[in-house]
Structure formats: C-alpha cells, structure tokens
Design goal:
With 274 residues, the chain is of the alpha/beta class. Helices cover 21% and strands 32% of the residues. Strands 4-3-7-1-2-6-5 form a 7-stranded antiparallel sheet. A 7-stranded mixed sheet has the order 11-10-9-8-12-13-16, sandwiched between helices. The longest helix has 13 residues, at 129-141. It starts with 5 loop residues before the first helix and ends in a 6-residue tail after the last strand. Bound molecules: flavin-adenine dinucleotide (FAD) and FE2/S2 (inorganic) cluster. FE2/S2 (inorganic) cluster is lined by residues 238-241, 243-248, 259-261.
Length: 274
C-alpha cells in the first residue's frame, strides 16, 4: 500500500490511522519508526501515543511509545523502540506501507523551566532518549540552554541517530556526554555518576530525565540534594492509556496515587514516592 496524502490523515485527539514510512534497526534490538499520521497534530514534547500492532488477535493491548520529534506540516512522527516482548517484536516487522492505528496525543508532557535563563540538564538512560530528545527540541525552540547525558549499558545500545542530532542541537558551550556502564564508549559508569560530575562543575536550574526507574530515582535524589527542579517521564504497564483501567498507578509522596497515562507520564520528581 502506498503512503497517503498527509492532509487526509490530519485530525484531533483520538484514534488515528497511521502508515509506516520507515522502520529500521539503528542499535542493538532498537528500531527507528517513522509514521505518517494525523496524531502528529498537537503532539507536545513528552506526550506519548498508544499503538496497535496487527498480527495477533490475542494481543489486545496497545503499545505506549514516546516520540522524539514530529513534523506536523508533513504529518510525520518519529519514534524509537526497543524490542522487549511479543508486541514490539511484531512492531519491528511492520514494513514501510503497513497500516494500523494510534491513540493520541496521550498524557501530559514536559514543562519549560520557570526561568528560561537557567541552564538545564537532560539525563537519558537507554530507550529513555526519545522523549529526552523531544525535551531538547522544546528547550531549543524556547531559547533555553541545556547539557545532555545520554547513557546505555554498552556502545551497541546507544541510539546514535539521536545522539548525533543532539550534538548538532546544543548551543555553543553546552555539552553532550555519552556514557556506558561498561566503558565501551564515552564516560565509563552510570548516568548518575556522569551527572554528579556535571553538577559539581556547572549550575543547573532544571533537570529532565527518562530511563530505567532505578536511574531516575538516583537522578531525582541528586537533583533534590542540589535543590534543582526535576521532571521525570515515568513508565508503567498500561492497559487503556486514557484513565479507565487503573493499571498505571504512580505512588505519590502526598499519599495516594496518580495515573501515569493521564497525570503523567511526566511528573515533578519531588512528588513521586520513589
Ligand atoms: C508512557 C510510555 C512511553 C514509552 N515510550 C517508549 C519508547 O519511546 N520506546 C520504547 O522502546 N518503549 C517505550 N515504552 C515501553 C513500551 O511501551 C513497552 O516496552 C512495550 O509496551 C512492551 O510491549 P511488548 O508486547 O513488546 O512486551 P511485553 O511482552 O508486554 O513485555 C515484555 C517485558 O517488558 C516489560 N514491559 C512491558 N511494558 C512495559 C512498560 N510500559 N513499562 C515497563 N516495562 C514494561 C514487561 O514487564 C516484560 O518484562 C513506553 C512506555 C510508556 C508507559
Ligand atoms: S493505563 Fe488505564 S488508567 Fe492508565
């Protein structure tokens, strides 16, 4: 099937058809997926879309995915995903021209820092990089300066297409620090260790983080100690994706829970009971 005119795909929040424009492996078990869809209209940095992957009638849950960038004029959305189970394995096999549906835009995304004059620090672990890239785009459009830490377990898992674009995006004097747990590329150690080094050298006004929960907990703790505001994009197993099933609870410091799909996925890190 040939890609359709993007103008036909424009729409509002809800269920949107999409056409796969490209789907290729860019790192170990990690794919770059480009779709053409009306869901691109109104997507804000840090929000996510919920994708149906055809091919198995018993697999009814959609796959929530953050995006790295959109081009609403061309109705394009760029996503990166790691193959971790059956749904993402079938998603990786969808060829250009394949059609399915996405629900979105879902959830609440990143917020700009209260003071646009501050320097921000973006900390991404593994497949947490796509929404961090979207945050970088948002900050760039607002004229906010930022440094980035992009970490992975090993070099083979680093998402270089996004890292290279970040290196082009950051302002003069700003840094992109690549880290790997095993030292196969860049700084040797966890992203939190790279963060300790940067916060000892520079003043930051806001931290943005996405990655494994244990990493975000560490990032949030450093930010709290340094009295830096911190936003974290959380992941939860999701059922409906729109607040109906109660599957995606996030415990709060204030007591009770928030829903990751409606109140998040981006939360003020100080509000989360890590
Ligand atoms: C808001 C949001 C944004 C996301 N953005 C991205 C993204 O940009 N790129 C990306 O690669 N992944 C992202 N994810 C995670 C992605 O949705 C899951 O990896 C995917 O749904 C797994 O589906 P599966 O059928 O392949 O795996 P399954 O067979 O369902 O599960 C395989 C393994 O992954 C774990 N898992 C499944 N879903 C989740 C989840 N939501 N959170 C944590 N662990 C999970 C399971 O516990 C199991 O161990 C996001 C999740 C959320 C909630
Ligand atoms: S996924 Fe159903 S309430 Fe959040």
């Amino acid at each position: 099937m040939s890609p359709r005119d993007p103008a036909d795909l424009r729409g509002t929040v809800g269920l949107h058809e999409f056409v796969v424009m490209a789907n290729e492996e860019v790192a170990e078990d990690t794919y770059r997926l480009e779709i053409s869809s009306g869901v691109s209209q109104g997507l804000e940095a840090g929000q996510f879309i919920n994708i149906a992957v055809p091919g198995d009638a018993t697999h009814i849950l959609r796959i929530p995915l953050s995006f790295s960038r959109t081009d609403p004029a061309d109705a394009r959305v760029e996503l990166f995903f790691a193959v971790v189970g059956e749904g993402t394995r079938r998603l990786s096999a969808m060829p250009a021209g394949a059609v399915s549906t996405a629900v979105g835009p879902c959830g609440k995304g990143w917020r700009l820092p209260d003071d646009p004059a501050v320097r921000c620090l973006l900390v991404a672990g593994g497949i947490g990089l796509p929404p961090i890239f979207a945050a970088a785009g948002m900050l760039t459009r607002a004229g906010v300066r930022f440094d980035v830490i992009a970490g992975a377990q090993t070099e083979a898992k680093l998402v270089f297409p996004l890292i290279h674009d970040l290196e082009r995006l950051v302002a003069d004097g700003c840094r992109v620090v690549v880290s790997t747990d095993d030292g196969s590329r860049g700084f040797k150690g966890f992203t939190t260790m790279a963060m300790e080094q940067l916060v000892s050298e520079r003043a930051y006004g806001c931290v943005y983080t996405c990655g494994p929960e244990i990493m975000m907990r560490g990032v949030a703790a450093i930010a709290a100690r340094e009295q830096i505001a911190c936003q974290a994009s959380l992941e939860r197993m999701m059922g409906c994706g729109f607040g109906a099933c109660g599957a995606c609870n996030v415990p709060l410091v204030s007591g009770g829970c928030a829903s990751c799909c409606m109140d998040g996925p981006v939360f003020d890190a100080r509000a989360v009971a890590w």
